Amino acid sequence: MPETRIISSIPGNHREDILVFTVERTMKKAASIKGYTIVGIDYGNRYAGTTVICYNSRHEIKFVQSSKNADADSFLLNELAYLNPDLIMIDAPLSLPGVYWLGSEYNDHFFRSCDRELKAMSPMFLGGLTARAISLIKKMNGTEVKETYPRKLVDILQLPVAIYKHDKQELGSFTEQLNRTSEIKFNEARITSWHHVDAFLALLSGLRYLKNDDQRYGIPEEGIIIV
Fold first, then answer.
1. In-domain check, residue 10
2. Which residue in 11, 155, 166, 216 has the fewest CB atoms around it within 10 Å?
3. Tens of pLDDT along the chain (227 residues)?
4. Does 7 map to a domain?
């Protein structure tokens, strides 16, 4: 049976809240992935306790969540320093519309091309979250970081859009279908919020990227979203 375990007692971290999943089917399709650590991040309000990390460790998928009223950005920096991942996939804008920094050929003050393609929220509307995410990736010391959009992966995997993030009562049904669809299996009871779902979907997009099976949206110089 899956177990809950304490991995570290790093000050300021919350690994006592970790959720551990048993992976029944691992990354065997692409031998080049072996030995890689992928981190998926659902990036939330700084002090809301809604930021969730999902990562693979050997044959397990694990989650760590920030605590309410604690600084989520400090939490992420501590956890990522401990994990030392090869790839980070984050559900947050990592650039501004090109009109602000790429010259006169760009004229959209609200959306990047990738946002328009995916009908995603404007980085300008997200404001502080966008600024925090851009600042965060500058502290990754060379670790590869990619922007992702879990909502699009829901479409690609043909998961039930009608119930996705609609109501917490639908979480169990959605998770069951995600488990059937995903090549990585997990204990459905351990998915306790939609933030965990999005963090796991971000990790799956990272797996797709490493296997060259991803889809890309946007203009490279302005910002690419990988799913």
1. no
2. 11
3. 333 332 333 333 433 333 333 333 333 343 345 689 999 999 999 999 999 999 998 778 899 999 999 999 999 999 999 999 999 999 999 999 999 999 899 999 999 999 999 999 999 999 999 999 999 999 998 999 999 999 999 999 999 999 999 999 999 999 999 999 998 877 788 899 999 999 999 999 999 999 999 999 999 999 999 99
4. no
Beta-carbon count within 10 A of 164 CB: 19
Question: Using CB atoms within 10 A of its CB, is residue 223 exposed (0-12), middle (13-18) or buried (19+)?
Answer: buried
| 6 within a domain of the structure (yes/no) | no
Q: Tell me whether residue 4 is in a domain.
A: no
**Count of domains in the chain?**
1
CA of residue 214 relative to chain centroid, distance: 15
